[in-house]
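Ligand-bound model needed. heme C.
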Amino acid sequence: MTEERRRAFSNARAVLKIVSSFGVVGALALVALGAVPSHASASRTAYYTATQASAGAKAYAADCASCHGVHLEGVSAPALVGGGGMAASESVADLYGFITEQMPAGNPGSLSSATYTSILAFLLEKNGHPAGAVPLTPARIKTISESL
Ligand code: HEC
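Prediction:
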């Protein structure tokens, strides 16, 4: 092997090494940066319809936003997006139980079950769950062990 060819050969090996380590590290970095969603919508269960979520948005604005914030960011009450708190640690089924029994604080249990259900659809939407064709119902909510 000539000196030149030997150098070219070792350069090629160095490039291969970089490519192969970036293959794994690069993919992980992309997931961490959110470029490749770790929960791609397609792989998540669709629990509610878009119509329910938009009805829920209106009900949320009227009955919940004063304490939890217009953008669910939390004002006098905890945030309902972005993880943390009960919303992230409890199952959706348990969270629904809590909401229907305790919320809106000051007037708990005052909404219809259709309204509570649509508000939950809105919370699912805002936490990145996809909409689908099958409506959310209280019976279906009881089967959801996933958290928001
Ligand atoms: C008058 C203020 C007020 C209103 C209105 C209100 N909440 Fe709350 N909410 C609170 C407070 C305060 C807490 C925290 C205390 C607690 O956990 O009991 C809370 C807690 C929660 C939690 C648990 C959050 C966590 O991560 O710990 C959820 C979910 C929730 N509320 C949903 C709702 C929904 C849905 C509505 C509308 C139907 C609503 N709230 C209306 C004051 C309010």
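The chain has a mean pLDDT of 82.
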